[in-house]
Amino acid sequence: MTPSIMSPASDALYVWLVIIALAACTVITRAGFLLLGDNVPLPEGVRRALRYAPAAALVAVIVPDLLPWSAGAGPVFDWRAVSALVAIAVMMVTRNTIAMIAAGMAALWLLRWLLG
Amino acid sequence: MNQILYQSATGSSGEAGVQGSAPDAARESGKIRVITYNSCKPSLYSFPARREPAAVPPIPMSAMRPSAAVPGFSPQERRAAIVAGLKALAPTTIAIGVWGMVSGVAMVKIGMSQSLALAMTFLVYAGSAQLAALPLIVAGAPVWLVFAAGCVVNLRFVIFAAALHPYFRRYSRWRRLGLGFLTSDIGFVLFMPRYGDAAVKGTPEQTWFFLGSALGNWLTWQVCSVAGILLGAVVPQAWSLEFAAVLALIAIVVPMVASRPVLAAVAAAAVVGWAGQLLPLRLGLVLAVVAGVTAGVFAEKALDGKTRGARL
Predict the structure, then answer these.
(1) Which domain holds residue B145?
(2) What average pLDDT is seen over chain B?
(3) Which of A5, A58, A90 is most worth mutating to test chain B (most B CB atoms within 10 A of its CB)?
(4) Same domain, A67 and A109
């Protein structure tokens, strides 16, 4: 998630398509069952398997962001990974999202200031 | 407690909190879970049992619209239900606000224009899906992959909708669409412990309580998200505030990891997601989800066998 001037995020058409796609995600997942619930059978096995998908997807988005690979140089180390571990520890102790985000940001700033 | 939930599952309607159709054998083998709704942990919710449509209690036509004057439900009662929803929401407003602001700042910080960020917050209104999409946007991932990732991240709402369905099934399509769009993690978590065991599902009080908390949630989120979008342009790049978005995503995952199968799923997804980075189009994400689900299902089966063995 390193922003740059040439980022696809500045391509308005692409971002609009993404927004429309995500809006469709919201409607399908939140209202889909409310609209079709009486007609959609969800087998028990599928239901059980689906419980693992959200956590897996979120982790698969997070990990490359914390421990990126660059095409030529292989794995790259970033203090963000260490800061994330600090934040996770704080989260497990306090169970507080705000304390967790604050601790993670503080750890990142401190590590970069102390160690570059 | 266990017995009460079990009865409600075998009666006319099952709900989240009790797993599937509930034969005694399954309960004895510990497969029925009694769920407490103490935080936004999608992994904790079980799916509701399927019901036959005939099991719906008959409701008079006059009650079909929450705004219509329903006999026995006065405007005062409606107000009280909305206020109750807002009061239940109050302790969580700071968390919702911080979340909204973090996503607002993050959208601008990855290089989206403010108008696009505003469009995203109002049209998508799904913090975790938005935040999960941002690294994909930066990587220029194809739209279908962002769509697939958003749907997977949002899968928990399918579970929520399945649980809320008995309460909203009597409304028109458009109303159900609106109620669905406004469903949030916190709105669901506030609703189910209050009305999960209700004898009659779909009363105006329930709907207005839901709407009170849902609209309060929407307003808090959007105000803070817009503030974040405006603030994002002012905050220096050196602060790396977009990292707060990654932290916010981690904050969703940590409470999800409440059992060993989920831990196995998360570990598998992390390894495959890390190793799969060099694949084009961020396909590593797809592989990681498949690996995670597979690991979770296998771990569940393996642990089930173990606990049964221990009991015998």
Answers:
(1) 71-249
(2) 78
(3) A58
(4) yes
Same domain, A60 and A14: no
Is the domain of A99 the same as that of A65?
yes
CA distance A115 to chain B (A): 15
Give the C-alpha separation, B269 to B290, whole Å. 8
**Which chain B residue has its CA at the smallest distance from A59's CA?**
B270
Total-model pTM: 0.70
Q: Which residue of A has its CA nearest to B260?
A: A52
Across the interface, of B147, B162, B248, the residue whose CB is closest to A37 is: B162
A17 and A64 housed in the same domain: no
Same domain, A24 and A76: no
User: Do the chains contact at B150 and A22, CB–CB below 8 Å?
Assistant: yes
d(CA A84, CA A64): 13
The secondary structure element, H or E, covering residue B28 is helix B24-28
Classify burial at B167, counting beta carbons within 10 Å of its beta carbon; exposed 0-12, middle 13-18, buried 19 or more. buried
pLDDT at A25 (0 to 100)? 95
**B contacts of A65 (beta carbons < 8 Å):** 135, 246
Which residues does chain A have within 8 Å of residue B251's beta carbon, measured at their own beta carbons? 87, 91, 97, 100-101
- Tens of pLDDT, residues B29-52: 444 444 433 334 333 334 444 444
Indicate the number of domains in chain B. 3
The answer to whether B288 contacts A60, with C-beta atoms less than 8 Å apart, is yes
Tell me the CA distances in angstroms from B152 to A3, B284, B285, one per residue in order: 25, 14, 11
| Eight-class DSSP state of B211 | H
The CA–CA distances, whole Å, from B93 to A26, A99, B74, B100, B221 equal 22, 15, 28, 10, 9
DSSP assignment of chain A, as one string? ----TT-GGG-HHHHHHHHHHHHHHHHHHHHHHHHHTTT----HHHHHHHTTHHHHHHHHHHHHHHS-EETTTEE---HHHHHHHHHHHHHHHH--HHHHHHHHHHHHHHHHHHH-
Residues B8 and B126 in one domain: no
Contact between A29 and B161 using a beta-carbon 8 Å cutoff:
yes
Residue B251's CB is within 10 A of a number of other CB atoms, namely 27
Tokens representing A11 are 């391509």
State ipTM.
Answer: 0.82
- How far, in Å, CA of B253 to CA of A66, rounded? 15
